[in-house]
Design a protein that fits this description.
Largest sheet: 8 strands, antiparallel
Order of helices and strands: EEEEEEEEHH
Helix content: 10-25%
Structural class: alpha+beta
Shape: globular
Number of strands: 8
Length: 108
């Protein structure tokens, strides 16, 4: 994966990929991955309506057309694990929180 930088923000984890900012955040027992479209000072990041959602051990693509399950999310989970390894030492509590969530997605 070609991640250029990873930052831990109050609202989640942000990383740069192909010159765009991508947000990963936990909310209401689900993890969401979305492109940050803009940043509003008053409200924070504004993210895309097309998102990858991890919930109840499954991965979905959520879009204006509805929500569809992704049958083989291996690369998504692997990429998230790589990003987490990059923050492990500087942000151990965030690492543990996200790592605990991803346990439901371990193949094995």
């Amino acid at each position: 994966m070609r991640v250029k930088s990873v930052n831990v923000e109050r609202s989640g984890i942000e990383f740069c990929y192909n010159q765009i900012s991508v947000m990963v955040y936990l909310r209401d027992k689900e993890m969401r991955i979305a492109e940050e479209i803009t940043y509003e000072v008053a409200t924070g990041p504004v993210v895309s309506n097309v998102q990858i959602v991890l919930r109840d051990g499954k991965v979905y693509l959520d879009s204006p057309f509805g929500e569809n399950e992704i049958e083989n999310p291996t690369n998504i989970v692997k990429g998230l694990e790589e990003i987490l390894e990059g923050i492990k030492e500087k942000h151990p509590s965030v690492y543990e929180k996200y790592r605990e969530f991803l346990k439901a997605y371990q193949s094995g």
